[in-house]
Amino acid sequence: MRRRLIAGNWKMHMTPQETEAFVGQFLDRLGGATDAEVLLFPPYTSLDRAARLLAGTDVALGGQDLHTEPRGAFTGAISGGMLRASGCRYVLVGHSERRHVFGDDDAAVHDKLQAALATELLPILCVGERLAERRAGETERVLTGQLDRGLRDVDEEVERITIAYEPVWAIGTGETATPDQAQETIASIRRWLVERFDAATAEGIRVLYGGSVKPDNAAALVGQPDIDGALVGGASLDPESFARIVEAAGG
Ligand code: PGA
Q: Which residue has the higher pLDDT, 75 or 250?
């Protein structure tokens, strides 16, 4: 049985002070333990504060990106080991903003995923098609390419990986894939996992949906048989709306 995962990607939002206010309100609002696993991706500069405030709770932390090298002359970069030392269990790899704004190609995504595994972080590999690709009927080809190249060389470690399907046209646009569209595409990702690994392995891997998830559409999305949770951007910045999404997922 795959445990649902609701993850909040704060992107370039939330100072340490704002993080403190968020965590206080969110924990108050949520009460005790939740059925779904809850995960936050603060910016690097708020990780330490978040880790202190969340110590002893069930809310996990992750980094939004990582560099492939463990250390060195890479101004502005953060390594997997640094993320671990700052309280992270997870790391995002290949988020569409990394791919399309910062130019991370599939080779970079592959290397980052390997670096995450090597530092014992749990990578969340993000894949997704652009609007023109969906309109041209190329969704499956694009996703298969991203998965093939991102997971090249990955074997049984795939059990430590979560996949997030985030159609680029639905991120930050208010445009959500319908539950049926998201289910259909995520089912095709699971079929790819069965072929690339095996049925039992594919059955154990969580695949999330991301792209304009909100309190009022979360239950319908995560209620789909192949959708194991959500990667939430904008709606994770408000403690009330993020708590409602966690509840919608069965919290
Ligand atoms: P959004 O972002 O929920 O604001 O669309 C999702 C994401 O980028 O992970």
A: 75
pTM over 0.70: yes
Question: Residue 109: which of 154, 43, 72 has the closest Cα?
Answer: 154
- 247 flagged as catalytic: no
Question: Residues, the chain, total?
Answer: 251
Q: Which of 37, 95, 129, 247 is catalytic?
A: 95
Q: What CATH code is carried by the domain that includes residue 44?
A: 3.20.20.70
Instruction: Reply yes or no on whether the pLDDT at 235 is more than 60.
Output: yes
Given a cut of 60, whether residue 137 has pLDDT beyond it is yes
Q: Which domain holds residue 33?
A: 5-249
Q: Which residues contact 30 (CB under 8 A, 6 or more apart)?
A: 38, 243, 246, 251
Is 166 in the active site?
Answer: yes
* Atom 7 of ligand 1, nearest CA residue: 233
Whether the per-residue pLDDT at 251 is higher than 70: the answer is no
Q: How far is CA 202 from CA 45, 155, 161, 199, 218, in A?
A: 35, 12, 11, 5, 23
Return the residue whose CA atom lies nearest to atom 9 of ligand 1: 233
